[in-house]
Each structure stands twice: as structure tokens, then as C-alpha cells.
Write a structure and sequence with these properties.
Blueprint lengths: L3 E5 L2 E5 L5 E4 L6 E2 L10 E6 L2 E6 L5 E3 L2 E3 L1 E4 L3 E5 L6 E6 L68 H16 L2 H5 L7 H20 L6 H23 L7 H26 L7 H30 L5 H37 L2 H38 L4 H25 L3 H31 L8 H9 L6
Parallel strand pairs: 3-4
Antiparallel strand pairs: 1-2, 1-11, 3-5, 5-6, 6-9, 7-8, 7-10, 10-11
Helix pairs in contact: 3-4, 4-7, 4-8, 5-6, 5-7, 6-7, 6-8, 6-9, 7-8, 8-9, 8-10, 9-10
Length: 479
């Protein structure tokens, strides 16, 4: 029996001459080459009248010493590279030496390095060693041999082609190496979150233009771009706060419930209460501040108490702080969808009156609402949620802690609205925003250390499942 040994990546398989050997990336092949550049059904080998014959099947191509081959008589051990000249190497070793094989007839097409397979022509004269160079005095390709027939090229070497064909093959190989699109499309790296995020954020503005170009609703751009920006702030808040593990499906469901609560509560209560208040007066601004901060704080408090009473579970204060920022982002998205209509109207009016200054103000106002509105609401809500988390974990001062956290957020919120309603100088307003940011970032950096101090102080001391766990294990929560 004339056997064939096929080796790849240190694995060797032996096949009988009555077998058809299939090579490719798919797991149902006889020789599985697990490389993404290789075709699923790349090639096959079968025993023919003149010996083992290799035949390429896939579009990725097969190469021998840098040259592309599609059909090859394997008369001696040979190494082929799959998909590119630098791809995976497969070694083919027939058991019967070349001298025992009948010489093949001339090749019938470029890429076939043996002959007699298609037209049934008789074999030619004996050939020199398939891996030897052309010997001195031996007829070159195309010259007549001793019997008058055309001399054959070496077995295992593709026919020589013209300069243009060789240049084309070299160019195709270079492109395949330098721009491996096929390899990219099968790369598991596409499933990484960062790459998916980049793809989404690169294409979404184009999708907005395609979907909403004919919309006459001025709230549409506000909704679209506020929702576009909010997830980026969410990622930033997660990295800043870094809630400790474990976290998973439970926290995801709580976050979804908070989103639904804020959207419904705003439509039914918050907007109606705000319509009765005048933010130009300090008292009216305080009413707006408490109204909106309670809207964001209530779902945090309800979720924390429900989890404690029904499941006896206390989450780390940093998780509640992060969930508070989610409530603030959703509130900001809903609010921005309304306020951006005013900015768009300013831009339209500026176009009518040819006022460049008014157009600039309108564009900047739109950007402010889209980029910053949700962020402002998120940092105020995050501060309030931090104190709600402390209050749930340490019940001795629960009510004062909740009131203190919500009041801080509401007062900062009220001063922001009151100043914008009465003054045009921007710098005091910017300082107020900087102070709000200082508070938020301060709590993101020291949430764990503040909780440790609260745990040790008799004024706040109470049961804390979180801190008890750290005490038992000797682990210290991150500062």
C-alpha cells in the first residue's frame, strides 16, 4: 500500500491510498488546520494513476516556495504553505519514492505541476529528482527531451510563468499579507467591548442622519445625542467609582428599575411640580432643586430598603453611588430632549436674521445640554446616593444621613438654576460647577475610608454586613 503522511503543527497522520484526505479549517476535515486564514475546505489529496495528487479547493490559495499552486503530484516529501507564502506549513510525505512512480505526462494548465490527469495522455520519460535543480545539459522547459516529447519541469515546482503573471501573483500575495481582511473578519477580537464601542460611536451619527433627516420634531436631536453621550459618562463614572465585586444580574435589574422609575416619575410628577415654581426666586429655585433631586434619590432609597428588608442584602455604598449617577444621567437625557429644542429654535432664528452671534450661542447651548446636562444631574445624584448607601448600612442615623445627602444635592442644584435665571456672567456659575465636581470626585476617592470611619464612630455605629465581612477576612476595602 502507498501511504501518505501529513504533518502540521507537530501532529502527524497517516492515510492509505484508498482514502481521500481533506485539509481545512473546518473540524470535519481529516487534517484540521486551525488558522483563521485557511479556508474551511482548503484542499484534498487522493491517490491517482501516478501517485498522490494534491488539489486546492478553497479561495485562500496554497503556496510552494512562494509560488501559488492549485494541483500538484506529490512524488517526494514536500512542504506547502496554506493561505499565504508565510501561512501554516503542511508537510506531505508519500511512502513510495519518486523513482518507483511512472513519470507523468506534460502539464495541461498553469498551476498543475504534473500531467496526464485531464487528457489521459501517456506518461513521458523518467524525470530527475523532484527537488534537484535542472542538471547541466538537461533540456529546459519547453525543449524536446530524448524521445521528442516536451521535457517536464521538476515535480513539486510550479510551471514558470511570464513576468506579468509572476508580478501579479507577487502583488496578490503582498496585499494578502499587508491587508488580511479574511483574517480580520474571523478574528475573535471583534467581540471585545472596546472595539464594539468604537464601531457604534463611529457609525451612530451617520445612522441618526439617515433615520431622522426628515423628522420635524425638534426634540429628536436632543434625544438622539443625549442618549449617545450618556453611556460614555456612565463608563467614566464606573471607572471613577469602581464598585467592588461581586456585581451582576441583580445590580443590572436594579439599574433598569431605576431608569424606568425616573422616566415615569418625571412625566407624572416632576414636570408638573416644576411648572408651578419660579426658579428666578431663590425659594422657587430651592423648590425645583428638591423636586428634581428627590426624583433621582427616591428609586435609590426604595431599592436599597427593599433589598435589605426582602433579601437581607446590603450593597456597598459605591454601588449605590454609581446607581445614583445612572438615575442622574437618565434625568439629564429626559431634560435635555426638551431644552435642546430652544437651542435649535435660536439657531433657526439666527439663520433668518443672519446673526452669527445668535447662531453660535444656539449651537453652544445645544452642545451644553447634550454633553453636560446629564453629567451635572449625575454628580448631584451620585452624592445623594452615597449618603443613602451609608444610611442603609448604618441605620442608627438613617433619616439624618438621607436628608443631609439629598439637601446637599438640592441646594447645589437650586443655586445653579437660580444663578442661570438671574445673571449672565458665567464665571461664578463655573465655580459652582467646579465645587459640585470637587464633592463628587472627593467621594469617589474616599468612599471606602469614610465608611470605615463611620463604622468605628459611636455616633453612626450600627450593623454593617459589608464592614463585618472585611473584618472577618482581614481584607480592607479600597480607599
Amino acid at each position: 500500500m502507498n501511504k501518505l503522511q501529513v504533518s502540521w503543527d507537530g501532529q502527524r497522520s497517516t492515510f492509505e491510498q484508498d482514502q481521500t484526505v481533506r485539509i481545512g479549517r473546518s473540524t470535519d476535515n481529516d487534517v484540521v488546520v486551525s488558522d483563521p486564514t485557511v479556508s474551511r475546505q482548503h484542499a484534498q489529496l487522493a491517490w491517482g494513476p501516478d501517485g498522490w495528487v494534491f488539489e486546492g479547493l478553497g479561495r485562500a490559495g496554497t503556496f510552494l516556495r512562494g509560488g501559488a499552486v492549485t494541483r500538484l503530484l506529490v512524488a517526494e516529501p514536500v512542504e506547502l504553505t496554506l493561505a499565504s507564502p508565510h501561512g501554516p506549513v503542511v508537510r506531505l510525505e508519500p511512502s513510495q519514492p519518486a523513482s518507483e512512480l511512472a513519470p507523468p505526462a506534460p502539464a495541461t494548465s498553469v498551476g498543475e505541476v504534473s500531467g496526464g490527469f485531464q487528457d489521459g495522455s501517456p506518461p513521458g520519460p523518467a524525470l530527475p529528482s523532484p527537488l534537484a535543480d535542472w542538471g547541466a545539459g538537461a533540456p529546459s522547459p519547453g525543449q524536446a527531451g530524448p524521445s521528442g516529447t516536451a521535457a517536464m519541469p521538476r515535480i513539486g515546482v510550479p510551471l514558470r510563468r511570464g513576468a506579468a503573471a509572476e508580478a501579479g501573483e507577487e502583488f496578490a500575495s503582498a496585499v494578502q499579507i499587508l491587508v488580511p481582511v479574511r483574517s480580520w473578519l474571523t478574528d475573535p477580537g471583534w467581540r471585545q467591548g472596546l472595539r464594539l464601542l468604537v464601531i457604534a460611536y463611529a457609525l451612530l451619527p451617520l445612522v441618526f442622519l439617515a433615520l431622522f433627516a426628515s423628522s420635524g420634531n425638534l426634540t429628536t436631536p436632543g434625544w438622539a445625542y443625549s442618549l449617545y453621550i450618556a453611556p460614555l459618562w456612565g463608563v467614566a463614572f464606573w471607572l471613577l467609582i469602581r464598585p467592588p465585586e461581586p456585581h451582576g444580574k441583580r445590580e443590572l435589574l436594579i439599574g433598569l428599575g431605576i431608569v424606568i422609575w425616573v422616566m415615569i416619575w418625571m412625566s407624572l410628577i416632576t414636570i408638573n411640580v416644576n411648572s408651578m415654581l419660579n426658579p428666578k426666586s431663590l425659594f422657587g429655585a430651592l423648590g425645583v432643586g428638591f423636586n428634581e433631586e428627590i426624583t433621582k434619590a427616591l428609586p435609590i432609597l426604595v431599592a436599597a430598603l427593599a433589598l435589605l428588608k426582602l433579601r437581607s442584602v446590603k450593597l456597598d455604598v459605591r454601588m449605590w453611588m454609581f446607581l445614583g449617577t445612572i438615575a442622574g444621567l437618565i434625568f439629564g437625557v429626559r431634560e435635555a430632549s426638551q431644552y435642546t429644542t430652544i437651542a435649535i429654535e435660536h439657531i433657526a432664528a439666527a439663520a433668518v436674521h443672519h446673526s452669527a452671534n445668535a447662531a453660535v450661542i444656539g449651537a453652544l447651548s445645544f452642545a451644553y445640554r447634550v454633553f453636560v446636562d446629564g453629567f451635572q444631574h449625575a454628580i448631584w445624584a451620585g452624592v445623594a446616593a452615597f449618603f443613602i448607601g451609608i444610611a442603609v448600612n448604618y441605620p442608627r442615623r438613617r433619616v439624618p444621613l438621607i436628608l443631609f445627602g439629598v439637601t446637599i444635592a438640592a441646594v447645589l442644584h437650586a443655586l445653579n438654576d437660580w444663578y442661570l435665571s438671574n445673571f449672565s456672567l458665567p464665571w461664578p456659575w463655573i465655580l459652582l460647577q467646579a465645587f459640585s465636581l470637587l464633592l463628587f470626585l472627593g467621594y469617589t476617592m474616599s468612599a471606602a475610608s469614610i465608611e470605615r470611619r463611620v463604622r468605628r464612630t459611636p455616633l453612626f455605629r450600627g450593623e454593617s454586613m459589608i464592614m463585618d465581612k472585611f473584618t472577618e477576612t482581614g481584607e480592607q476595602p479600597r480607599a
